[in-house]
Design a protein that fits this description.
Layout: H1 2-6, H2 14-21, H3 49-56, H4 58-66, H5 69-72, H6 119-122, H7 136-140, E1 152-153, E2 156-157, E3 164-165, E4 168-172, H8 192-195, H9 208-212, H10 242-245, H11 259-262, H12 276-280, H13 310-313, H14 327-330, H15 345-348, H16 395-398, H17 411-415, H18 445-448, H19 462-465, H20 481-484
Antiparallel strand pairs: 1-2, 3-4
Length: 514
Amino acid sequence: MVMLALSFSQTGSANSLESLVMPGPVIEGHKKYEKICKNCHSVFSKDTQDKLCADCHKNIAKDIKLKKGYHGRQKLGKCKNCHTEHKGRNEDIVKFNITLFNHQLTDFKLTGQHANVDCKQCHEKGKKYHKTPSLCSSCHKEENPHKADRLMLKKKKLECHACHTAKGWSVIQFNHSKTKFKLLGKHKQVNCNNCHPDDKYQKTPRTCQSCHKFDDVHGRKKGQTCSKCHNARGWKELKFNHDKETKFPLKGKHKQLKCNDCHKKDPYKYEIEKHCISCHGSDDGHRGRFGDECNKCHGFDRWDKSSFDHDKDTKFRLKGRHSKLACEDCHTTNAYKDKNRKPCYTCHKKDDAHRSQQGKKCNDCHNEHDWRKNVRFDHDLTSFPLLGMHASLSCEECHIKSTYKDTDSKCNDCHKKDDVHKGKLGINCQLCHNVNNWQAWRFNHDRQTKFKLDGKHKDIHCHECHRNAVVEVKNELSACNDCHAADDVHNGQFGRDCARCHSTKTFKNARIRK
């Protein structure tokens, strides 16, 4: 094996070596890829071979991904299980057997008379099977007696299968219910051509009068909508149910009225108003304030009995002081046309001491009984939870004004006078102190900074290094010379980094550190 490898020059083709170990020639269709093995094979990885196949055979890969077509509808395993290469130029690696092929595993199942059709009638010679068109019109264009440009439904062209089945042309299965005209009663027995002469399926009239104009014994005096009184079962079966066939069911005293009491004119030519106020305008004691729909509060039997329950009939229950208000206190305009908004702020804007800083939902903190009693507010749900000594403070000690959001939340804003460091350690008190007690402070200089305190640095007071007031103490290393310039007997000749020779315990016994 070593001798074989040495027989090639450094620039010698790896392809030559690969060709020696290749089990045999590939088929004619793969011939141009034969010299570059990596097109189909991945070294030391058999699992990626199928992906390489899919990179070339994109139509098959698409079917597998969408789970359609012959390859996508069944679990076939790896490509090489069916298509084995390197068996010669003329080898058939497809192994397609027309006799044993199950057409039911494709996107076009053979049913009805299609099952008896010879393969060659649909699959042209020299054309790949998966490119065979599947639309009815691709095979049956010459057999179509209809004017194809007129076979449309909802602006979409209809294919043969919309009306016909594979059992035969005479078997009609069109579902007329999908159109805007459902076939009921005797309409089911009517031949298609009676309503759609000359294949006119678009814009077919749907009114009764368009077909039954000459059947109108009323002389068109009762309007053109025959279905108001008649149905598709026959002309003689008269039926008109005002409760079901109109949007105005007759209840209470309305049942006792005659048709002409409301329908002064032809009811099919002139539609009457259905609002209560259109008939009962003179009976409205509210003068229109509560809208046109009297039935919201009143029944159909008597005016003096109201059934309106504000708690049940609206989304705004009346509690506390709200229950004592008169309707007009809130409903100053038409109650149904100009609906009152439910947020508290719409009525209580003038009562808002917070000037809208706390939002418009007053009920988050207040109740309907009193603004100042039983106020509920959980400060711990804010960005500043009350912990330690803060929990014992009264609201007014921090919130001088009712506009709570103006209150500062930094430690230094309230505790500036308590700062014994006079700002030398910044204004973020919480870095060392906690809310329980000023004296219970914690700060680990070794862990929380980049400057470890050892040697004589341990005994130095904070203010000896932090001498000036700052907003924030910078966490960065300082050169020794920043503090020990006055102690430098070398007058800067050896730089600013004293630690190269000296330790933090003493300047004596200097030794150069590598």
